[in-house]
Amino acid sequence: MNYEEIMTQLILHGGNARGAAYEALDEAEDYNFEKAEKLLEEANDEFLKGHKYQTDLIQSQDDNTVPSFFMIHAQDHVMTAQAELQLIKRMVEQLKNTQRLEKRIEKLEQ
Question: Structural domains in the chain?
Answer without folding.
Answer: 3-109 (1.20.58.80)
